Amino acid sequence: MAIGSITSLGLGSGLDLQDILDQLKALDQRRITVKEDKKTNLQKQVDAYNAVNVKLFSVKSNALNLSLSSNYLDNSVSVTDETVLSAIVGDGYKASAHSVEVTQKAQRNSWSATAVASKNDTMFAQPASAIADHDTTAAISADKTLTMYYGTYAGISTDSSIAAGTTDAAFAINGITIGEVIVIEKDANGALADAINFKTDEHGVTASVDANGILTLKSADHSAIDVTINGGTTTVFGGTGSMSNTSQQKIDVDLTSGMTLGQITDQINAASNNKDVNGNQLVTASYAKAEDGSYYIRLAATSGGNTAGSEINVSGFNWVAADTTVAIGQGSSSMYLSVAAGTTYAQMTTLINDSANNPGVTAKMIDNGDAVNPYQLTLTADDTGENARIRLTNLGVLTEVTGAGAASLNASFTVNGISYARQSNTAIKDVITGVTFDLKNTGKSTLNIEVNHDTVKKDILSMIKGFNDLVAYIKGTQADTTDPTTDTTADTGTEKTDNPLAGSSSANRITNQLKSLLTNVLGLDTRYTSLTDLGLEIDSDGTISMDEDILNAAVATDPDAIKALFLGDSDKKITGLADIINDALTAMVSSTGIASTEIDESETKITRLDKDIESETERLTKKYETMARDFAQLDTYINRLNSQANILTSMMDAFSTAGKSK
């Protein structure tokens, strides 16, 4: 219901009092309507200036791009022989050419075992003991001591420091004669170690001497080392000629004549020295049946093995076999596998691939196509390069294939005549600045870094279009395309009749400043000193455009001059056009800029009008509520008077009728 309205008003008096009240109210409401119209127009100005700021920011973004020197080095890369290498390049680099020659691609280190007839052939041999059972047949015919070594293998070392002297002619390692060697104290010149290592390929042992003169011998497969020491060799070896395994815990088990494998197994498991310092059993013995039907004793680490510290070494008996500790390493990582005698090639493949500590190698059983022995176990590094070279211990059945003879596994190539080596063939990004390339094959190719100017051209055209759109919007000849609700399909070629910026001196100032920015002429001594030189055109109606044919010709003719126009000349202290425009637009979109100031002033006026409208509305509401009550009372009074008049009329009519009847 309208404020101050009573639907029955006038019924008593017969007068149209409600219509009178509404007409009075409509006259008073005009003052509020005028203010609401002013508020609507001010809000349109706020929206329009907000749109102006958005468009200014868009143009500023293009100007900022043109002020960045890196944008004038938008790069692409090409190679003359794509079969040799491929490459990508970032932006911001000068044009250049680089000659590349690839002499070797990085390779994966690989090893292979001797070919066998079946995947299930035994890789780790079982002892041929010829013992038919484990509980009745005697394994030994005399009292003996079974000696085992447990722990990380580090070879055997002399008990004393190497002394000066000459080894005798019979000096030998594993039956391979080393012979006479003149040795000085502590083998300071390395003569003894060199003489032993000279025949490593024959006897399988490497030698080293530490600063204290202690000689250490290590076998490649961690097997026992037989050193022949006589006469002069004894003197050289510190006078005692003895060597000891001090890196592993020695476990001696006394055996008596006639013991069966079962009894020996029990004796080993119960040995008092078969324990660590905490009393935990180190080696677990069990009897097993070999493929030939004979029995032997298996020695395994009670802990489960698969560590360097759980290796077991034993020798001297043909009816005992310790699990072999196989080590596969790469770089600083190593994988240890405790492998039981009787393990097949297929089983070994699985052990390697399934190990949680695999450093990065893959084992496969391949079919080489041979009619007799088609299967080979191969081991290949997952990664290329020397850092992924595989180290093997106790896998003597494998021989190195790729990388054999210390052949390099790294990629080898030259760039501009300078030699490089890399671990990988891919993602090489530390040779040519800004370029990442992949080696695909050996051969020669030229890598060209090229500069294109499409980005700069796009930014120039976008900036000019932004200027034109902004000027057109201010003039009212273009819809606000920043508003998603605007119908951009409508005809905007004619001036809009409802232009909130029409007649605004502030809007005209923005337009004039924009045109002034575009027509700046710099004091450069280059081909292009203004946007007009690049094809800028400003028509008489204010339309701003860029002749792309002129711009394309300028880009093709002198791109450096375009760069100078926008970046300026720091040596001559000439500010580039991009910075001039960017700085001016920064000021224009700031809180103190023309548009923001107009927005603030309009919003202040809107706030004041809101208060005025609210106050006026409250005043009129109270006024017409009072008038409505007064009109209601008037209606009542008139109704009473009408009633009284009706009564008097009736009485007079009655008197008149009575007089006539007499």
Radius of gyration: 52 Å
Strand order of the largest sheet: 1-29-3-26-27
β-sheet strand percentage: 15-25%
- The chain-level structural class is alpha+beta
Number of strands: 33
What would you call the shape? elongated
User: What is the CA–CA distance across the termini?
Assistant: 58 Å
- How many helices in DSSP terms? 12
Helical percentage: 25-40%
Largest sheet: 5 strands, antiparallel
What does this structure look like?
Among the domains are: 1-67 and 592-662; 70-106 and 410-575, no CATH class; 154-247, Alpha-Beta Plaits. The protein has twelve helices and 33 strands. A five-stranded antiparallel sheet has the order 1-29-3-26-27. It has a four-stranded antiparallel sheet with strand order 22-23-4-25, with helices on one face. Strand 20 and strand 21 form a beta hairpin. Helix 1 (17-66) runs antiparallel to helix 11, helix 1 (17-66) runs antiparallel to helix 12 and helix 7 (454-475) runs antiparallel to helix 8. The chain is elongated, with a radius of gyration of 52 Å.
List the helices and strands and how they pair.
Elements: H1 17-66, E1 74-79, E2 85-89, E3 96-104, E4 110-113, E5 144-150, E6 156-158, E7 165-166, E8 172-173, E9 176-177, E10 182-183, H2 191-197, H3 200-203, E11 205-209, E12 215-219, E13 227-228, H4 231-236, E14 243-244, E15 249-255, H5 261-270, E16 283-289, E17 295-301, E18 312-314, E19 320-322, E20 324-330, E21 333-339, H6 345-354, E22 361-367, E23 375-381, E24 390-393, E25 398-400, E26 411-415, E27 418-422, E28 435-439, E29 443-452, H7 454-475, H8 505-518, E30 536-538, E31 544-546, H9 548-557, H10 559-567, E32 568-569, E33 574-575, H11 577-588, H12 594-661
Parallel strand pairs: 17-19
Antiparallel strand pairs: 1-29, 2-28, 3-26, 3-29, 4-23, 4-25, 5-15, 5-18, 6-12, 6-14, 7-10, 8-9, 8-13, 11-12, 16-17, 20-21, 20-24, 22-23, 26-27, 30-31, 32-33
Helix pairs in contact: 1-7, 1-11, 1-12, 7-8
